[in-house]
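Tokens in:
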């Protein structure tokens, strides 16, 4: 309607939405605010947990990938961008960031033990592959009945299921490659924990006494 108004009508005419169209526009704006606040809240929580602003930013990179997968899934299955698919997109923020958390947190622990950045991220990606696959598949299979429109009055909620399943699978595939690459590029250097330093010194003393 807005596009037709810009082409046909002049400034002496005004238009206004009503009914379900007005409700959709209002809910869309509220969902956008909720999405932004959710991303900000998760970033601040991760910043406090990791005591860094770089690691949370690496983890938040999973969100754009999930949103891209959600939009592609909606287009692929012929669904619309409605209030249900918007709610599913907000849910994706918390569902997909756990993949980055699993990899980055374990990589940081390995680096604190003295391993190099590339060895730490490779080992972390390999060690966390199975839990990431398990949780992602569990989320996708849990939302599959919604995407398949199973149950009474479930047709209107198909968009939510498609967004969750598509966004989770899409982000899963890209996360396994993008997160390690970004970690290698942006992660800051870390110091060993004192307990590991003491262990190393103790081992050196033992070797020296044996020699």
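Residues out:
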């Amino acid at each position: 309607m807005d596009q037709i108004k810009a082409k046909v009508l002049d400034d002496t005419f005004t238009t206004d939405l009503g009914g379900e169209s007005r409700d959709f526009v209002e809910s869309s704006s509220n969902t956008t605010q909720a999405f932004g606040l959710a991303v900000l809240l998760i970033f601040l929580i991760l910043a406090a947990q990791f005591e860094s602003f770089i690691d949370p930013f690496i983890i938040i990179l999973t969100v754009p990938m999930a949103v891209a997968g959600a939009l592609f899934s909606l287009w692929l299955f012929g669904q619309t961008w409605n209030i249900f698919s918007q709610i599913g997109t907000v849910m994706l923020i918390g569902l997909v960031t756990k993949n980055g958390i699993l990899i980055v947190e374990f990589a940081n622990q390995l680096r604190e033990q003295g391993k190099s950045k590339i060895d730490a991220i490779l080992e972390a990606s390999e060690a966390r592959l199975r839990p990431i696959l398990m949780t992602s598949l569990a989320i996708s299979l849990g939302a599959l009945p919604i995407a398949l429109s199973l149950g009474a009055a479930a047709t209107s909620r198909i968009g939510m299921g498609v967004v969750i399943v598509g966004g989770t699978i899409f982000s899963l595939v890209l996360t396994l490659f993008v997160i390690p690459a970004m970690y290698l590029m942006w992660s800051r250097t870390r110091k060993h924990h004192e307990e590991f330093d003491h262990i190393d010194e103790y081992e050196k003393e033992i070797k020296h006494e044996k020699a």
